[in-house]
Amino acid sequence: MSDTEKVADRPSAAPPGANSVDRFFKISERGSTFAREIRGGFATFFTMAYILVLNPIILGSAKDKFGDQLDPVQLTTATALVAAVMTIIMGVGGNLPLALAAGLGLNAVVAFQIAPLMAWDDAMGLVVLEGLLICVLVVTGLREAVMHAIPQPLKQAISVGIGLFIAFIGFVDAGFVTRIPDAANTTVPVQIGTGALTGWPMLVFCLGVLLTIGLLARKVKGAILISIVTMTVLAMIINSIADVKTWGLTTPEWPGTVFDTPDFGLIGDFSLFGAFGETTVITVVLLIFTLILSDFFDTMGTVVGVSAEAGLLDDQGKVPNLGRVLLIDGAAAVAGGASSSSSATSYIESAAGVGEGSRTGFSNLVTGGLFAAALFLTPLLTIVPLQAAAPALVAVGFLMMTQVKHIDWDKYEVAIPAFLTIAVMPFTYSITNGIGAGFLAYVVIKVVLGKAKEIHWLLWGTSVLFLVYFAIDPIEQILGVK
């Protein structure tokens, strides 16, 4: 958007004939129209609708401590429900064109970091706790204090590391990357498929990656969703004419019906404090802290970025109704955990709606309404195979990776911690490990350089927690509790 357009979009007085809806959402006052808001609402939905496919795949492909898996149909319903309700609440309460849904990266933490340590209901209880703590931090003003305590390069590195982790999940889920059996006696832990790209599903994945990156390069709106739909159709055609043994979680076959009654079986299936009986208290604290960090950075960057693109920042660069916006975002995390669909958060894809004219929360009514309609389309949404959806994870990984350009790689005191954060996440399959490695390295380097006074007390406290987390086994042995 040009500077001229942004100036034109700055608040102006509402016309005398404006109706109550116009006045409530300040549509005319922000230089918008009902037509632009509706168009923007549709654009936002179609650029983020991929989460209705990806969230069930990420959460549904993981197993908890007891080997149980969540039902993909119920996950699709829960994902659509939370996105619909919280997007509408954000529109009415925050009056920003900012849609919400299950967060990519956050769902990866839940699926691959938390669930293996406990039962699913306990894992989702931690998500609820995370959301409640975020709400408390917003009300007390500590949320911004925590944000300021963490150096900007580490924030950017966390985003990049999560991006690489998500991309790696995409490669693994599609079967493009597989684990080499220990019996192979090799020092290389993973390889491409069985050593070569074989099978129709692998062809679908590879073509999907090429199609997605091609659309992104041409800056096609809705590129990720277009790729998922196209490759699902191709997979259905291949599956009907070829002898495909398995596609993974789902088989791309026409379900016979497009509409069905929503299955709300996962709603309310969480245990608020059950996690404390499954693992150590320090582990639980750090897992919640990891969720909060991921949610913090995604939300703050998204809210400011979308508001700036819409020309809604005031003269001091502040977001309108920021307190309410952050509180609603925290409530979305609670709703995500309570529905077992993982923490919901604000989506940067909302910028697509802004590009089409959205300036107010009215567009959220449109986006939320479309998510509500998706509640009745679960048969259609659950035929998407991993190989058709996984290219989207690779693409999202790339988009998050672009933050790496903002890190000063010539300044070792921030570059080394940033590198460790980025590298440790995908290599250890753990977002928590990456954040911990980066924080500890940052504190150590600052102390070595005689700059200990530059370290915020919150960062000191967090680093001590991570030190205990990494050394929990020898500590337990010393204390005789293991």
TrEMBL record:
Membrane-topology annotation of the record: Multi-pass membrane protein
Family per similarity comment: Belongs to the nucleobase:cation symporter-2 (NCS2) (TC 2.A.40) family. Azg-like subfamily.
Organism: Streptomyces dysideae
Keywords: Membrane, Transmembrane, Transmembrane helix, Transport
Protein name per its UniProtKB record: MFS transporter
One of the record's GO molecular function terms: purine nucleobase transmembrane transporter activity
PANTHER family: XANTHINE/URACIL PERMEASE C887.17-RELATED, XANTHINE_URACIL PERMEASE C887.17-RELATED
Pfam families with a match to the protein in the record: Xan_ur_permease
